[in-house]
Structures are given as structure tokens and as C-alpha cells.
Write a structure and sequence with these properties.
The protein has about 160 residues and is an alpha+beta fold. It has two domains: about 70 residues, no CATH class; about 50 residues, no CATH class. Helices cover about 40% and strands about 10% of the residues. It contains six helices and four strands. It has a four-stranded mixed sheet with strand order 1-2-3-4. β2 and β3 form a beta hairpin. α4 crosses α6. The longest helix is centred in the C-terminal third of the chain and has 12 residues. It is flat. The N and C termini lie far apart (about 85 Å).
Length: about 160
């Protein structure tokens, strides 16, 4: 007959709770980080010439909103940033099907439209088809369908 061993387990809840992100947890425990890895957020203030996703990147990197924003803008940024992830320094948007779409700035978006509409991968298809083709290749830019519509009209 085999012996039955008895275990006494104590379960300690972690400090990660639903709705509380890892970046916020790190921001609260800044004193535990070594001095060499700390970067002051004031160095990377967001300007008007930065890409559309610069505020989201700032929030995900430092766990706080840029200081020049109003309370309502900060609230909207926190809600918006839940849909984004930074991996290896690149910003991705979580798609509805769980895929990660790489965020493209304006210049990259124009290049993608040209590439998928009129260059090697294109076939001069409709604007919606061109935008869906870009999405299928895991790229994202806000206003993609509207921009594809105006790009296709110009040609």
C-alpha cells in the first residue's frame, strides 16, 4: 500500500490585479530599478511632428501620460492604450482576431498604399480591397480605408 503525503499550501495573491497593468506596477516601484536603466520622461516629450502613435508609445513605455495633456485627454489615452502593445521597440495594435498589427506612420502608410495598390503586390483594385490587403499583411494605420479611397481616386 502506498503512503499518502499531506501538503499544507499557502496561496499568496499577487499584486497584479485585473485592470492594473504591468507598466503601472513598474512605475509604482521605480526605486527598485537600477539607476542606469531609468530614463526621465521629460526627455521624450511628444511634439506635433511626431507620428500619430507617439502618445500611446509614451504611455506604454513610462506608465504615465505626457504632462501637457488635460484630464480628459489623459483618460482617453489610457482607454486607447489598452489596445496596443510594444514588442522589441515596435508598437502593435491588437486585432479583433488576436493578431498583432504593426502600426505604420504616415510615410510608411503612403508607401504601403502604393505598394499594395499599384506596385508589385497591387492590381489596381478598389480602395476597400487595397485596405483589406494591407490589414491581411498585419499593418495598421488609423483612417486606412479613407486614405485608401482618396489614394485610389487620385490614380
Amino acid at each position: 500500500m502506498e503512503k499518502v503525503q499531506e501538503y499544507h499550501l499557502t496561496i499568496k495573491p499577487t499584486s497584479l490585479v485585473r485592470g492594473r497593468g504591468l507598466c503601472k506596477l513598474i512605475a509604482e516601484n521605480k526605486e527598485s530599478l537600477p539607476d542606469s536603466t531609468e530614463v526621465t520622461p521629460s526627455v521624450l516629450l511628444v511634439s506635433e511632428t511626431d507620428p500619430w502613435f507617439s502618445n500611446v508609445t509614451y504611455f506604454l513605455t513610462y506608465g504615465e501620460c505626457p504632462p501637457n495633456m488635460s484630464y480628459k485627454e489623459k483618460h482617453n489615452l489610457r482607454l486607447k492604450a489598452k489596445k496596443y502593445v510594444i514588442s522589441n521597440g515596435v508598437l502593435y495594435k491588437r486585432g479583433m482576431d488576436g493578431t498583432f498589427l504593426r502600426c505604420a506612420d504616415k510615410e510608411q502608410h503612403k508607401m504601403l498604399l502604393k505598394l499594395y495598390h499599384s506596385d508589385v503586390f497591387g492590381g489596381y483594385f478598389s480602395s476597400a480591397f487595397t485596405a483589406f490587403k494591407i490589414l491581411r499583411n498585419y499593418f495598421y494605420s488609423p483612417g486606412m480605408f479613407k486614405d485608401a479611397f482618396f489614394f485610389c481616386i487620385k490614380l
